[in-house]
Amino acid sequence: VGMPELFEINADANYALANLEVSSAENPKLEYINIHGNKLTSLDLSGMKGLKYVHAGDNTIETMNFTGCDNLLEAYLFNNPNLKSLDFTTCPNLSIMWAFLGRNLESVDVTGCSKLTYIACDQSNLKEITLVDMPNLTDIVMWGNHQMTKAVCKNLPSCKNVNFEACDPLVDVTFENMPAVEWFNIIVTSVKSLDFSNMTKLNWLAIRDIPTLESVNLTNTPSLINLYGWNTKLTSIDLRGCSKNMNQVWLDANASL
Description:
By secondary structure, this protein is mainly β. The protein has a twelve-stranded parallel beta sheet, with no helix packed on it. It is elongated and about 70 Å long. 33% of the residues are buried. The chain has strands at 8-12, 32-36, 42-44, 53-57, 63-65, 74-78, 85-87, 96-100, 107-109, 118-120, 128-132, 139-141, 150-154, 161-163, 172-176, 183-185, 193-195, 204-206, 215-217, 226-228, 248-250. It contains no helices and 21 strands. The N and C termini lie far apart (69 Å).
């Protein structure tokens, strides 16, 4: 039904709702969609050029289509256990993407989202994540992805906070050109080596409970004052590139150190 003045849709706790159809032609002014607690299995938002905000949680959604959502700014998607993938490659203005408790969420593609500032896919099922050439990205939250094996983070000059805690099988990592990072948490993973060189703003680093970790590069990290690195396979660690005002260094239970 054509509703040219429709600005907002709220559909909470409509437990029998199984279908929701919108279109750019019939709803050209629609900017906000909020759907929780429904029986929707798919949500097609393709071509919704005016859409700016999507909140969707506690649904049975299996597929979501954001193709051509040129002005989408924020997507909050949580506890959608049947959702397996998300593609935001045609959402150039996306600023915030949060997918929490995506128990079967295996892939998220934000390639080309150069305005992205915040991405969180915590407690999901991602196998890998690639975040490259995003000048505005400040926060990366990936903790609790128990199937993740690969992470690539490159050319993120504004990134300040990084969290890969409890990505148990994570072994293949790249962290390059991230000079603004201040807080980095990558505990309970399976990496063998980590390179934090030239993270000149880094002041808090947790690399504990990584029994496979053999080497850490802390070259030119002059702001680092807090280091937590117990239960690793490290045989040595060079702190000469760190701050002269180190506050805490915890290196307990490193049998080879």
